[in-house]
Amino acid sequence: MTELDQIERAEGNVDILREAADRIGELGPGVLSDVELVAILIGSADCAARLCSTVNIRRLHNIPSEELTSVRGVGPERARKLLAAAEIGRRLWNNGDDTALIRGPESVYEQCRDIRSANREHFVAFYLNSRNMVLRREIVSIGSLNASIVHPREVFIPAIAVCAASLVLAHNHPSGDPTPSEEDLAITRRLMEAGRLIGIELLDHVVVCRDSYSSFKERRLLRG
User: What residue numbers bound the domain in which 16 lies?
Assistant: First the structure.
């Protein structure tokens, strides 16, 4: 690689990191990919891409330091940063290493701590196994909810990828009033019908705010 190539590559790295940082400031970290989050953490987009293609970054807290440092560019210092971040995430998740269990709307409310006070609407999907354990949590969209933003495709592709048996939806109301809107109802009915067609049941849709929530299931709004 020539010196010019090295300079251009370094500049590209900086651009990717700057763009990712700007998106966090504007939309929050939930919109970033795994590679972008790791890149911000360790300061290298190239190294983050190599790491995410080599190890399962979503099981980071179970990966030994030696395996991380075997990836080119991940030295002991970067490995320590990654493992420290993984430990913070593990502690924030309700039961440490135990898989989160959705027992009802109260569980969903607890698992939405990061969006309850957000000043923009965040639409979240929890993908569950047959025992209602969370296989994956995904922020599907950010911004005012409407049918063009929350498309069944965006909701159910991750569900199929993790072989989910069912899912629970949640989103926040920045207004502080968790009462479902007509748009909320329309989107939920559309997603419920899509779930029926592919055999993945929509169990509930919970609207959360800072101090309260509203459950479609409890309000009997999932009929139809």
Answer: 3-92
